[in-house]
Amino acid sequence: MGPGALSAVLQSLRLPTHPDLLIGLDISDDAAVYRLNDDMALVQTVDFFPPIVDDPYTYGAIAAANSLSDIYAMGARPILALAIAAFPEELPQAIIQAILQGGADKVAEAGAVVAGGHTVVDREPKYGLCVTGLTSPQRVTAKAHAQVGDVLLLTKPLGTGIITTAIKRDQGDAADLDTAVTSMLRLNKLAAELAQEVEVHSVTDITGFGLLGHAAELARNSAVGLWVDSSAIPLLPGALHYAEAGLLPGGLHRNRAYLERDGYVQLAPTVDASRAHLLYDPQTSGGLLLVLPPDAATELEARYVKANQTCWRIGEVVVGSGIEVV
User: What is the pLDDT of residues 38-66, one digit of tens each?
Assistant: First the structure.
């Protein structure tokens, strides 16, 4: 569902709560957080989607990396996963096994285990995970703690949605897809672990709502504004070319319409139109958007360089509301 439709549905729900439910549906965040005791909180998330690549093992691994990402965004360590899958009855067993194995191997790389799951019959394959993680209640990096003067760091380039759309329409280059797949397969584990070593105020991962969609949730929850430098935002090879050619996924248009309908996002006239598309592009297994004080950002950038972990400084937190893109 797009952000607008999802928001409308959730607003009508009446759900019970609990004092130990630290983060639930009352606030938009990357995962639910339930306090077990003063020192330990349970973090839980779920995600699944249809194939975005042809190779079944790679599809399973990407879906698992995407599902795990919300746990890392909350400052937690994944420990357990349950698979969620839908497959056509005629789908060969070998393909199903490859999808499940790809997911299980990626979960193992994260230091967690797949312990079960649930399947249904559907005409379109779908696969993902319900992931459980652990952290201290004091170390949860929720979307509600950004402070004016903080710096925005992004750990992966954008463009997976546009690149996979170009490939589906037989207008994409295989080398560009290979680079995008490599990015989607890379866990946010190292980026998150290094971030835990410095003072970080808020974190979110960039997935289906695009960079500006997830940044908007962070800004709204924190009651601040964001200033974003579009020229500083990294893009995957080929992404800008495909955007210029109009090879845009449907989710991109839904993201943009929702964010711009009330003027919450303001694009400066100097922002390149094709580059602007990338800011709304729905990502699969995208990077982390970290919000932290300038000194901590500088320290984290140095740690990332030593660990061969990418990151880009793309903006800052400002007084006010909304997002200004220049």
Answer: 999 999 999 999 999 999 999 999 999 99
What are the DSSP calls for 7-69, one per residue? HHHHHT------TTEEE-TTS--SSEEEEEETTEEEEEEEEEE--SSS-HHHHHHHHHHHHHH
Q: Using alpha carbons, list the distances in angstroms from residue 231 to 30, 69, 161, 180, 279.
A: 27, 26, 19, 20, 11
Domain span including residue 84: 31-139
pLDDT average, residue stretch 110-135? 97
Strands 225-228 and 322-325: parallel
Query: pTM for the complete prediction?
Result: 0.94
- Is the same domain home to 235 and 319? yes
pLDDT at position 4 is 66
pLDDT at 1: 64
What is the enclosing helix (H) or strand (E) of 305?
Answer: helix 294-306
Q: Which of 224, 208, 200 has its CA nearest to residue 45?
A: 208
Number of domains in the chain: 2
- 1 falls within a domain: no
Share of the chain above pLDDT 70, in %: 98
The 3-state DSSP class for residue 149 equals coil
Q: Is residue 17 part of a domain?
A: no
Two tokens, residue 274: 């094709």
CATH code (residue 105): 3.30.1330.10
Task: Indicate whether 195 belongs to any domain.
Answer: yes
